[in-house]
Amino acid sequence: MTSLTTASTLSTEDISVWFGQRQVLSDVNLTFPGNKVTALIGPSGCGKSTFLRTLNRMHELIPGAGLSGSVFLDGEDIYGADFDAVSVRIKIGMVFQKPNPFPTMSIKDNILSGLRLSGRKIGNAEELVETSLRRASIWNEVKDRLNDQAISLSGGQQQRLCIARSLAMDPEVLLMDEPCSALDPGSTRRIEETIKELSSSMTIVIVTHNMQQAQRVSDQTAFFLADDNTPGGVVEFGATEQIFNGPIDQRTNDYVNGHFG
Amino acid sequence: MTKPAPVRRKLSAGPLSTGDKWFFRSTSIAAYFSFVLVALVLIFLFLKAWPALQEQGFEFVYGTKWVAEEGQPLIMQIGPMIWGSMLIALVGVLIATPMAISLAYMIVFMLGSRLAKVATTLIDLLAALPSVIIGLWGFYVFTPVAINWETTLHQYLGWIPLFKVENVDNAFRGSPFIAGWIVAVMIVPIVTSVTREIFSQLDKDLINGAIALGGSRLSVFRKVILPTSSGGVVGGVLLGLGRALGETVAIFYVLQISFDINWGQLLESHGGGVASWILARFGEASSGEISGLMAAGLVLFVITLIVNFIANTIVNRSQPWRKD
Ligand SMILES: Nc1ncnc2c1ncn2[C@@H]1O[C@H](COP(=O)(O)OP(=O)(O)OP(=O)(O)O)[C@@H](O)[C@H]1O
Ligand SMILES: [Mg+2]
To answer: If one looks up domain A10-256 in CATH, what number appears?
Structure first.
């Protein structure tokens, strides 16, 4: 039995996004309740990654990027005056499509890198390293080689290390952008199991192109779509079960059944 | 029964068409020609240098005397000038490295693409400025400014041996400190362009990963960007050092050249360098001394070659994790 700690709720209000003059997202309203896994699906280029990056303020790093609307973490606007980008990113972690461990650091230092980068105190390093690696279910594979270079790990292990690295920051929310797309089926399974376990302690948003994966890991699903030359948006949002087995919108039905995209 | 050993095909990426053939031929001629040219220069240098090397023995490299007066036996030992070259090059590199790294960081990570191009062009232009111009600028414009800096340095940090001055009347103007700055100006472009190249090849996902973990600009630079590119940057600095060692004319204008060793009193008005020494003596040298100056050139060439070799090795070995 896993104990359930109530995690934060993340929600967006009328999020619209521009790159220069071009609007790529319009009025996205979604709620990601605590301890739930939400899958974002949709054809390539419809703005899933872009949307995800607005959730931890990575979007603003792109020159010419624009944004309107709000993102609330437990009711507080992360773009508001009470938050700065760094404290947002500490609370809302992110895992990238391609595993990106720091190549000059050991496995252990990769785990501690977030604390060092954000200038926070490291309490009990040994313990933090172990719990983070355990939560990402990679402890047994690496416990005897914590001082090895992180790049000596396989791709799947590197990705779980990156998950562990985010977990070491003890985030409330974890954003994952196609975390398994560069991995083999075995590694993918293991990460999916990890995601399920993690949802007992945090809120997870995952972008995926894999329909089976969305059904296996998520509680709710949002279907994004961008028609030709119009900004992308959410077509349908609901329980995963309903989106896949009884979608209301015809386009959702076509997409989840592989008819386009 | 064993299978016969497989016959290997002969593979060659030879030229395909007539145009190709001509292109191959002309480029290889050009390539061989430049090899031959370098070889000829080396042979010439070596032949000219041989008499002096033979006469002075190995002491030529590390000895500290240079007597070339009529009626006296020639003693030529280039030691102090080798040291002088290294001292000035070192000062130059110490000044140029932080400047170059900051410039490269600014160009790659802070400026928009248009401004970045402008900055890159400007820095490359600096590299194209003739040495003489930098030397004259160093003499007329920079020296008066630098003397103020030196006076201040001496005043507040004079207790550090590097900034000690025996006699204030014989200090500041023409010091290795000023020469070091001139060298820095000359090598900033090459170090910047190597560093810029290394920075721009960094995996953007690494940097984004660090930012997503709550990194600030400074912490991401110190903990991720710099360690990941350190090998390449060190290589770039060594390339700059190689260039600094051979720098002649510009230094000749700003440095008070004298043959006695300056171990590291950066603000005192005397110093030297192999290349400047050659330039200083060449005009009135006897044929015996000319051989010695050629030998000095040869020694400098070898040192530069070694530094460049080390630099290239480090650049190539850096970033072993990059798989492509
Ligand atoms: N840095 C950028 N500058 C300009 N336009 C961008 C940038 N990043 C993304 N876009 C544009 O925004 C739109 C959405 O891109 P995004 O990467 O969010 O799509 P996606 O749904 O994640 O696609 P995929 O499934 O292929 O990852 C695309 O039309 C893309 O061209
Ligand atoms: Mg994407």
So the answer is: 3.40.50.300
The two three-digit tokens of residue B254, written as one number: 């700003």
E strands in A54-207: 65-73, 76-77, 92-95, 173-177, 203-207
Q: Which of B112, B220, B321 minimises the CB distance to A103? A: B321
Taking only the tens of pLDDT, chain A with its 261 residues reads 445 667 899 999 999 999 999 999 999 999 999 999 999 999 999 999 999 999 999 999 988 899 999 999 999 999 998 899 999 999 999 999 999 999 999 999 999 999 999 998 888 999 999 999 999 999 999 999 999 999 999 999 999 999 999 999 999 999 999 999 988 898 899 999 999 999 999 999 999 999 999 999 999 999 999 988 889 999 999 999 999 999 999 999 999 988 765
Which ligand has an atom closest to residue B208 CA?
A: 1
Q: Which domain holds residue B159?
A: 80-269+308-323
**CATH number for the domain harbouring residue B138:** 1.10.3720.10
Q: Indicate whether B34 belongs to any domain.
A: no
Q: How far apart are CA A158 and CA B210, in angstroms?
A: 15
How does DSSP assign B104-165, residue by residue?
HHIIIIIS-HHHHHHHHHHHHHHHHS-HHHHHHHIIIIIHHHHHHHHHHHHHHHTTSGGG--
DSSP B63: -
Residue nearest to atom 26 of ligand 1 (CA): A44
Query: Which positions in chain A touch B112 (Cβ < 8 Å)?
Result: 63
Sequence spans of domains, chain A = 10-256
The reply to whether ligand 1 has any atom less than 6 angstroms from the CB of A39 is no
- Claim: this prediction has a pTM higher than 0.80: yes
- The alpha carbons of chain A give a radius of gyration, in whole angstroms, of 18
ipTM of the shown complex: 0.92
